[in-house]
Amino acid sequence: MEINPGIFKAYDIRGIYGSDFDEDMAYRLGLAYSQMRRGELPDKKELEIVVGYDMRLSSQALKEKLIAGLCDGGVNVIDIGLSSTPTFYFAVAKYNYDGGVLVSASHNPKEYNGFKLVRERALPISKDSGIFVLRDLVLENNFSKASTPGKVTAREGVLQDQIEHDLPYSDLKKIKNFKIVIDPANAMGAQYFDELFKHLPSLNVIRINWNLDGTFPAHEADPFKKENVAGLCERVLAEKADLGISTDGDGDRIFFVDNNGVALDPGVTRAILCKIFLNENPGAKIAYDIRPGKITLDTIVENGGVPIVTKVGHSLIKEQAIKENAVFAGESSGHFFLNMPEGCYEIPVIVTLKILEELSKSGLTFAQYAKPYEKYFHSGEINTKVENGAEKIEQIKQQYSDGIQNDLDGISIEYPDFWFNVRSSNTEPLLRLTVEASTKELMEQKRDELIGIIKS
Asked: Which of 162, 201, 331, 373 is the most exposed place for a label (fewest CB within 10 A)?
């Protein structure tokens, strides 16, 4: 099969299985990755690379060919089996392995699959740090096998070790006996929630769409789309639950629903977490992406923290958080990171514990607790297909030249009562718009105004 070079994205490798790539590409990727890491670590005689996979129907076959390529490339493979992305990151970072590859297409529809790649300490490999190098190696397909093939070792108990690592970040005795509805969308979040709640047996956990199923029988595993959390919101109300939780396909993004069945904007969740981590780490740096979500900045400043603005993208936020020594970082799409001694990566289990403990201490319902953070009105991310994205961004810069402008990622323009960001997609011919304002009416007016410019 001819490999579609477009599957090599800004932050990972992703495409339609059987159309854009197949098992042969996975084998080549194993060879390419092993060649790259051996070149980067020439003084290490034996490299140990973690491999995991998600529940997609094609994942196991891809994993087997990936492992074959890695071994033929001369590295030893640590096979951790079925794994969420956070568990995979934990394994690479905590056990001091030399890198890793996870077979997963994250939140994409069922026909997709792909690969996430990291170096030691779970440092992400992105378009600026190796993905395009791997692309060229894979497409050239000019490999020589190692004289001594690598070995495969299965590692058991990684998930249990991850939860044991995460539990001390909260005082379990302070968590009340909440009723929680959880929807992992038949995907990998179910795995770590099952292990977590063994340690909190008094909680009433209502599990929906739980069994791992790569056909996604209930809905897409993308809680960023409102239609995919509608069922969770309804169930929270029907059960009179205290809150709801949803995770995406590979379990690295987490979303919350309050007791009124209303989905929290991830920016609100991020602001709550900023306050929690600043209470524990006074004066610390907190990183967040440049898209609108002003309550995050407000909360950092009000709680004595140092705000660090980053480009959009989980790889870029992690890299900036490490560079700046930020304690916590959050992306507007539901990625939340903790900068720990062993590495900086997504920590949905710790986020869950922190939110439950904070709600327990407050004595408030989730809706009551979140209300002070819901002071701005957000459009959500609006994607428009365009062929001349750079021209549109320049037009918007000119038309809104009286605002405060920042070109860190696309263009962000701020006025006293509204602000917005427009940026080009890293993977598709799209412009992504987010608008926020002090009133709903103004947000809608400016949203429609900007969409009109983009579509004109």
From this structure: 201
Kindly list the distances between the CA atom of residue 373 and the CA atoms of 129, 220, 245, 414, in Å, as whole numbers in the listed order: 36, 28, 19, 20
**What b/e readout covers 376-408, taking b as 16+ CB neighbours within 10 angstroms?**
bbbbebbebebeebeebbeebbeebeebeeeee
Largest CA distance in the chain: 67
Query: In the predicted model, what is the mean pLDDT of the chain?
Result: 96
CA torsion sign, 261 to 262 to 267 to 272? negative
- Identify the helix (H) or strand (E) that includes residue 377: strand 377-378
CATH number of domain containing 137: 3.40.120.10
Dihedral pair phi/psi, residue 450, rounded to 5°: -70, -40
Q: Which residues are catalytic?
A: 106
Calpha distance 271→297 (Å, rounded): 8
For residue 370, give the H/E element and its range: helix 366-370
For residues 342 and 390, membership in a common domain is answered with no
**Residue 69 clears pLDDT 90, i.e. is over it:** yes
pLDDT in tens, 306-353: 999 999 988 889 999 999 999 999 999 999 999 999 999 999 999 999
Q: Which of 329, 351, 373 is the last residue of a domain?
A: 373
* The amino acid at 258: D
